[in-house]
Specification:
The complex is a heterodimer of chains A (about 110) and B (about 110).
Chain A (H helix, E strand, L loop, with lengths): L2 E3 L4 E5 L4 E3 L2 E3 L4 E8 L6 E5 L10 E2 L10 E3 L8 E9 L8 E3 L3 E6 L1
Parallel strand pairs in A: 2-11
Antiparallel strand pairs in A: 1-4, 3-8, 5-6, 5-9, 7-8, 9-10, 9-11
Chain B lengths: L3 E4 L2 E4 L5 E7 L5 E8 L3 E10 L2 E4 L7 E6 L2 E6 L8 E8 L8 E2 L3 E5 L1
The chains are: A mainly beta (about 110), B mainly beta (about 110).
Chain lengths: ~110, ~110
């Protein structure tokens, strides 16, 4: 069975500082990894996915299969980045493709 | 995203009562999901449905049941509510080949006293 772990429930940084939200996973097959974000009073939404290898709102995430990690990074945090962030995993292919397993979530607070 | 709606948005009920949470979507997606969110535990999958005739248990289905009335509607029922079912409940939808992109409703805050 797959598992996603986000070791930090809370993360606080100051505006302009680098930020890294950690995500580790366990899965015996080939995973697809995602970051979802929930801003205050908004719906949970997809932020980025590893197969796209894109930067969204200045955030990037690299899948490291050797370390089974998918950490989310931003070099200069902004106050509007304050939100709840979830790492999620989907099995690539198979009958359960598209079903997500979420981590516990990390609340990021960016102070002015 | 107003395409996925949930009713009610807030509900307070008593232990032992039956309650139904409803989810509707206008996105035309075949796949629908029910999650609960608890502080420190994140989002956990209760049930999911890949089409109208397909219903599957998630990781925490005990105490819950679902009904997929149509492609657009997926209801979650608590037959006899208990206090530890107090949580924020989310419905989501996705396309079959959309990978992991799911579209979430606004959530229903349920309190069982």
């Amino acid at each position: 069975a797959q598992r996603v772990t986000q070791p930090e429930k809370l993360l606080s940084v100051f505006k302009g500082a680098p930020v890294e939200l950690k995500c580790n996973y366990s899965y015996s097959g080939s995973p697809e990894l995602f970051w979802y974000v929930q801003y205050s009073r908004q719906r949970l939404q997809l932020l980025l996915r590893h197969i796209s290898r894109e930067s969204i709102k200045g955030f990037t995430a690299d899948l490291n299969k050797g370390e089974t990690s998918f950490h989310l990074k931003k070099p200069f945090a902004q106050e509007e980045d304050s939100a709840m962030y979830y790492c999620a995993l989907s099995c690539a292919g198979g009958t359960s493709y598209g079903k997500l397993t979420f981590g516990q979530g990390t609340i990021l607070t960016v102070h002015p | 995203d107003a395409d996925v709606t949930q009713t009610p948005r807030n509900r307070i009920t008593k232990t032992g009562k039956r309650i139904m949470l409803e989810c509707s979507q206008t996105k035309g997606h075949d796949r629908m999901y029910w999650y609960r969110q608890d502080p420190g535990l994140g989002l956990r999958l209760i049930y999911y449905s890949f089409d109208v005739k397909d219903i599957n248990k998630g990781e925490i289905s005990d105490g819950y049941s679902v009904s997929r009335q149509a492609q657009a509607k997926f209801s979650l029922s608590l037959e006899s509510a208990i206090p530890n079912q107090t949580a924020l409940y989310f419905c989501a939808t996705s396309e079959p080949f959309g990978g992991g992109e799911q579209y979430f409703g606004p959530g229903t805050r349920l309190t069982v006293t």
